[in-house]
Amino acid sequence: MGIDVWVRKNVPEMESFVQDATPAVVEIATSQAVVMAETEAPLNHPATPDNDVLTLDWAALQTRVAQCDLCELHKTRTQTVFGTGSHHADWLIIGEAPDVPEDSQGEAFVGAGGQLLNAMLRALDLKREDVYITNSLKCCSQNRAITESEVRCCSSYLQRQIQLLQPKIILILGSTAAQHVLQTNTTLGRLRGRVHHFDYSPVPVIVSYHPAYLLSSPLEKRNSWEDLLFAKSMLVSGD
């Protein structure tokens, strides 16, 4: 099923997401500021999986992440942000590096951005507990640019989460997360509307806007809705 079919059938849900989801006071997450150069070239240093990490179960993986000191981010974090939700979820949602509120609460997508994500999920007849939510990085960068070496340090953790969860669809939210996880410098605008795959997983990967961006650019909510329907169509069709 294509986007047009889903849009026609779900216009009321889309209007609820577009019109009813924005809080009166907009809190913009300033940690989502890293934008890489526009190019089709991959990142210079592709991540190398840690074979030890790739053998861990959920509990052991969460412990390993909590104790991680592979990069400088461990020195300034309050706690790691591992992930929340169902271990049997069809949907895996991946955000960017934790911002300061996420670092404080230990959970991805909190505050105004989290409220908007909840509205996005409701428009798909989903709740937070129906999906699994994590970040591409597990430690807060304290609003500074993230380095490629820091991305590499976390890559095995995310890969193992994907292997353990075995979702049916992966939705990456935000240009920074998309570029880090897909190992590309391509802009979000050129990554949207396409199905991506990891070399270690056949699960379709869809890219869309981060909720923090939608709070500051509400006119893009309609495009975000199209991305959500595109992801849902991939899940339904099994492509």
UniProtKB/TrEMBL annotation:
Signal peptide: none annotated. Keywords: 4Fe-4S, DNA damage, DNA repair, Glycosidase, Hydrolase, Iron, Iron-sulfur, Metal-binding. Residues 82-229 form the Uracil-DNA glycosylase-like domain. It is an enzyme of class 3 (hydrolase). It catalyses: Hydrolyzes single-stranded DNA or mismatched double-stranded DNA and polynucleotides, releasing free uracil. GO terms for molecular function: 4 iron, 4 sulfur cluster binding; metal ion binding; uracil DNA N-glycosylase activity. GO terms for biological process: DNA repair. Pfam families: UDG. Coiled coil: none annotated. CDD domains: UDG-F4_TTUDGA_SPO1dp_like. Its EC number is 3.2.2.27. Belongs to the uracil-DNA glycosylase (UDG) superfamily. Type 4 (UDGa) family. This is Type-4 uracil-DNA glycosylase. It comes from hydrothermal vent metagenome.
